[in-house]
Amino acid sequence: LLQPAVSVGNVGQLAIDLVISTLDMTKVGYFYTDCLVPMVGNNPYATAEENSVELSINAEVYSLPSKKLVVLQIRSPFIKNKYRPFCQTLLSWVKSSKCARVILLSSSHAYQRDDEQLLGTPLRYLLTPDLEKAVGGLMQELNWKEMEKVAAYPGINDTEKVLYVPGGGITKLLFTESCSKGIQMAVLLKFCSEGDNIPDAFALVNYLNEWLQLIKNEVNTSSQWKIPSSWRLLFGNGLPPALF
Fold first, then answer.
1. Are 157 and 180 in contact (CB under 8 A)?
2. Is the pLDDT of residue 218 over 70?
3. Domain range spanning residue 192?
4. What percent of the chain lies above the pLDDT cut of 90?
5. Which of 4, 58, 143, 195 could form a disulfide with 12 if both were Cys (CB 3.0 to 4.6 A apart)?
6. If you write DSSP's letter for every residue of 128-193 in order, what string do you get?
7. pTM above 0.70, yes or no
8. Rg, C-alpha atoms of the chain
9. Do the domain assignments include residue 229?
10. Is 237 inside a domain boundary?
């Protein structure tokens, strides 16, 4: 199961858009919850006038059996105080659906990094203990950087470290709940700032592709991903026409 966190810059959701659009995934249903702000809109992945009038809602499920991949796309923010009920419902669904692994695409405020997090790549990962046993070695081979823990009380007690994902939405809660429930979960995230976050989405989906090889990775560029038609309306239509 691949899904976004509703986090800073909506980077995870944009990256999920690229996966669904590029792999031409089939919508197989929706995820019913009262934890998200209700919304309805036209088909964000329309390819012709005929399918442009199809409706989409706040949480939909897409499938690609050939790659044993299911994607949950979330398109609206959470209602206040509904993070925990959503995480409980989601993880119950993950268990009942027998999802082998969950990958959460997220982001975190770049301006709240500590000194160690300023070094090197802005991309990070987290693995639950159950998934660490299976793929931890591969992450080392890929030379990925694990998300650093930060001091719980900076300047007072720098020895006690905690996981801190500012701007990450449900990321920390969903990850810690998965750890306690024995669910194999990976979090892939990018430090970023609000603005035109399309480059961040490309960076995050390329990061994901290094691991899962969803598409042939000849060159690590944005041109290998199919831009969904709905992106024409993003950020003042700043995307070059060649990308469509």
1. no
2. no
3. 2-217
4. 76
5. 4
6. -HHHHHHHHHHHHHTTPPBPPPEEEETTTEEEEEE---TT-TTHHHHHHHHHHHT--EEEEEEEE-
7. yes
8. 18
9. no
10. no
